[in-house]
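Q: Could you fold this chain for me?
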Amino acid sequence: VALGAADARLAPVAAPALPAPRRRRAAVRAEFGVVADQPLILSVGRLHPQKRYDVLVDAAARWRTRTPPPVVVIAGSGPAYLQLAARISTARAPVTLLGHRTDMADLLAGADLAVVTSDWEARQLFAQEALRAGVPLVATAVGGLPELVGDAAVLVPAGDVDAVDAAVRSLLDDESLRTDLARRGAARAATWPTEEDTVAALLSLYAELGPDVAGPASPGADAPSTGRR
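A: Sure. Below is the predicted structure, expressed as structure tokens.
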């Protein structure tokens, strides 16, 4: 609207449903050397400054002194890989960069916590996947995230290492809180629109804005296309 749009509206975009995990939880955790009582913390996204994985790395470096220390894994690729790898090494943080992965359902099945540390987001895909999978979520209160998750996640300020550290510690130390968040997350996810709902909403919008959704009458089946969209 500020840029001059005559009609601007927000519309939710549904995250595609994940398939069922193909591996057991124990097998996923064994891949990363996670022992029985050791927490596995998962974050997913492109390795880009917007995602602020530096905040997660700095917080994770503080968790080395916990017994047992959590294992943190970040799935994704991108231009910040080398800088993050160097930061992980310098901080001696218990973080592994996994690169691009296609087994998101498996990773979520093995995770105890999910973390999003972005500076900005819209309707964040990984947050939706985590809540649907019943994985407790810590996320920054930016963009569309607060409206998306409601009270079904722990929200923290962007760029705040102390807040991420405190939120993760509180969840790791309180199994009942993790269980409650997992329950609320699944309930919240059940209220989100499906892909079919999103398509139906868009068709309704097209019908509203242009009653003749089929477009102008065609001059003939053999007439050349104008290329208009």
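A (continued): DSSP finds nine helices and six strands in the chain.
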